[in-house]
Write a structure and sequence with these properties.
The structure is a homodimer. By secondary structure, chain A is α/β, with parallel strands linked by helices. Chain A has a 7-stranded antiparallel β-sheet with strand order 13-12-1-5-3-17-18. In chain A, strands 7-6-11-10-9-8 form a 6-stranded parallel β-sheet. Chain A has a domain of 251 residues: nicotinate phosphoribosyltransferase, CATH 3.20.140. The longest helix of chain A has 25 residues. Helix content of chain A is 35%, strand content 17%. Chains A, B: This is Nicotinate phosphoribosyltransferase. Chains A, B: Belongs to the NAPRTase family. Chains A, B: Catalyzes the first step in the biosynthesis of NAD from nicotinic acid, the ATP-dependent synthesis of beta-nicotinate D-ribonucleotide from nicotinate and 5-phospho-D-ribose 1-phosphate. Chains A, B: Pathway: Cofactor biosynthesis; NAD(+) biosynthesis; nicotinate D-ribonucleotide from nicotinate: step 1/1.
């Protein structure tokens, strides 16, 4: 049906004109769309720094790197950590195999000594971090990677890529599920994100309270509930709307959701109930003034006797649109673009900073950038969240000081040295430690990965969010929900 | 050094408290971080629509789907298409293998008939589209997928994911390289995007004129130039800055770029030239008032005799920051966050719409959503760009009408029926057809894939951008650079 040489089609790039700037030969068969090793998902400078450090001997200095963010996106009251499980899943695949090493060699990125090191690389250090799903604030030490410089520096880009994207999505998603109160929110944004990012976004959304996702790969990888209705193309494929609806109901049963806004919504609802009967599962509205339409459609469904048929709304929803529909008879929200792009904050500003390293005598010393801008606090931290007598969080405590004292610090010590030692403590204690072990001596704790890890994280998020102060979940701009307090040990 | 049971570390989630909502068993070994099949990077509804259409016989109707966007991001004057080559690279991997089919079966997504169809699925249709790197406007028919409903509908999510993300990045990147005029711009944003999105972003950036990327996987996959300097952690790893600089120069040579803002910039520049000599390749500034600092550092470098040492600036640059540094003695820009997040527009609003399908007698009929909102024009389109006598684009012509006439339409026909037939035509003709064949009967044209495809696309983008009207490259908000004109054939 298509003639590739028809005149309305432009010639291919090398069939005419100069090809002087193009290679002489066509490429060999392209690489697979994805590759098993994640080791090259890395900035070049990590490998060249490694080369220099291997040459001068500092590569083997013991180091602690910390991930944190200096600020929340403008007006946001809290962030939600997501991606930790994906970091742990990726870690065993951070290996330099023949293909990776051959590339590094032929492109001259690093020298032979470094290639030898990379050939044997595996992470043997220890990683602590906030639990996935945890709430965070500026300065929260979200991940702590401890090992030699050589093994820890290589993870910088991969760790940040995962945590920055996944947490941006989870942070937006948590506002959406807050706004929806008890109505389910479904993730449908894959098409508005990089194809692999869509999978991560679905996972992060579920951690922050979404009920399911349209993304099948996410369903497969993480045992998530997958959901879906139908597209306008399905209706348009058929001779008319009744034929399309009859086909969908015949194939998927009356419990399916029918998309009723291809032609005329009122007619669409009529056709839908005619096709499925009053047991129709749902109708989807994907355009128009959803608040007004939902009222009209609810009334029409009720009049037709389809009182249990749910109304699913989609169409560029974000947390504000969800909140504005609170009084409308909407049963389910489907969210796409705003979810996968972090609703205005498509990445977190997390950084991966060296905070302590051994000196020439092997003693761990705090280090920090010291010029005027982007200062940060040197030294390893631990963190805890303080709760008031009503069980709600009141502050984030970030503890720094001499490394041995920080490592040994316990919330009980702090409680005993509390600024208000006679304050009543609620039954769950007034300080909750926030760092958990994720990788110990290179061994990944499998409770954080796969579908199990997602359920863990979702449960953790529900609980941590419920403990925020009243008002922390408002959508309006404001300061962080609780202040971060630095506690410096002597 | 770390005691996982120390008191400042929280217990793992199942070591205390209720685990009632968690599965009984820990997960088996996690899936690899990425998988070879891309077939599940798909919204569930595509498979359930397929199931219904297979059952009613419409799955085999011949269809044309088109990708287009209804509008550009607010104030943008043009978009840049990127991702086409990645779509073509992914296509051979869109296969349902045993793992994918077993998942679909056990999760009950589709019935046995559909599983059988999916087992044999490969795309055998034809895809035309704008050349990768092409400029586009609202309504431009960017990709046209033709085949049976069954084979074309399955590609919706994957195609949109790739084009929406990659084009968002390329559209932002083109503004950045415009703002930089002839200074090189380097891509350093991997850490602020999903780890696989970072690879795609690097590729899209190079298409839009970036010189190189820090991302090694992108270098590997697409033969891109990789670049890098050093991180603050490298300086902090060493006992002092002179030791760090000496190590980097010893390992990487004096042509390396040294990061001079860890402690004090003036001292850093001194130390840098002391370590590398006046042949030092570059210094990088990553914080502070870059315009002021660049002037001071340039003067200092010149006084020290390092007249050829380049100044590389990074630190949350976007196109506006780049433009504001036009008068500063900056040699190279490094861009991260703003690039990979589309500089305020992290996704394009591209949609994948059924525009024509065969009726029961096999005749192709135009179709379109007809309700009040999100209307679109039915029927297959072709497109061409009209040029004025000065060789600059004046309008985007989108041709629709009876399918046989649209397919047969040629720019020459239109030129002869031109509204100003006596206008002087420049030597390259006044209408340039915009659709090129990408896949013909399932066979991918390999000139669009791999590193070769990226070079093609980058060259195409340079040329297409150079032909825009004067003013089209301004950064200020405005209308699309040229209007889109619909030409409807009888």
């Amino acid at each position: 049906m298509i003639d590739a040489h028809r005149s309305s089609v432009a010639p291919t790039p090398t069939s005419g004109g100069s090809s002087a700037s193009l290679p002489d030969s066509l490429p060999a068969a392209p690489l697979p769309a994805v590759r098993p090793s994640v080791a090259l998902l890395t900035d070049r400078y990590e490998l060249t720094m490694l080369q220099a450090a291997l040459a001068d001997g500092t590569a083997h200095r013991h180091c602690v790197f910390e991930v944190f963010t200096r600020r929340l996106p403008a007006g946001r009251r809290y962030g939600v950590l997501a991606g930790t499980g994906r970091v742990l899943e990726a870690l065993p695949h951070f290996r330099f195999g023949d293909a990776e090493l051959a590339y590094l060699e032929r492109s001259g990125v690093v020298d032979d000594r470094t290639l030898d090191f990379l050939r044997g690389y595996r992470f043997t250090g220890t990683i602590l971090g906030y639990a996935e799903g945890e709430i965070f604030f500026p300065g929260s030490p979200l991940l702590q990677v401890e090992g030699t410089f050589a093994e820890a520096v290589l993870l910088e880009t991969l760790v940040l890529s995962i945590l920055n994207y996944d947490s941006a999505v989870a942070s937006a998603a948590s506002r959406m599920t807050s706004a929806a109160v008890n109505r389910p929110v479904l993730e449908m944004g894959s098409r508005r994100a990089h194809e692999q990012a869509g999978v991560a976004a679905a996972r992060a959304a579920v951690i922050a309270g979404f009920t399911g996702t349209s993304n099948l790969e996410a369903g497969f990888r993480y045992d998530l509930e997958t959901i879906g209705t139908a597209a306008h193309s399905f209706t348009l494929l058929h001779d008319d709307e009744p034929a399309a609806f009859a086909s969908q109901v015949a194939s998927l049963g009356p419990g399916t959701s029918l998309l009723v806004d291809t032609y005329d919504v009122r007619r669409g609802v009529e056709n839908a109930v005619a096709a499925a009967g009053t047991g129709l599962g749902g109708v989807r509205l994907d355009s128009g003034d959803l608040g007004v339409l939902a009222v009209e459609v609810r009334r029409q469904l009720d009049e037709l006797g389809a009182r249990d048929t749910k109304i699913v709304v989609t169409s560029d929803l974000d947390e504000h649109a969800i909140a504005s529909l609170a009084a409308a008879p909407v049963d389910v929200y489907g969210v796409g673009t705003a979810l996968v792009t972090g609703s205005g904050a498509p990445t977190c500003g997390m950084v991966y900073k060296l905070v302590a390293r051994a000196d020439a005598t092997g003693v761990l010393q705090p280090v920090a950038k010291a010029s005027a801008h982007k200062r940060s606090q040197g030294g390893r931290k631990v963190a805890a969240r303080r709760y008031g007598p009503d069980g709600r969080a009141v502050e984030e405590v970030v503890v720094s000081g001499p490394d041995d004292r920080v490592v040994a610090w316990s919330p009980e010590d702090h409680a005993s040295a509390d600024r208000a030692p006679d304050a009543p403590a609620d039954e769950r204690g007034d300080l909750r430690p926030l760092l958990v072990p994720l990788v110990v001596d290179g061994a990944v704790d499998s409770r954080w990965v796969g579908g199990y890890g997602v359920q863990n994280a979702a449960r953790h998020h529900r609980q941590a969010r419920a403990e925020l102060p009243r008002g922390a979940r408002r959508l309006s701009s404001g300061d962080p929900a609780i202040p971060t307090v630095e506690l410096t040990l002597d």
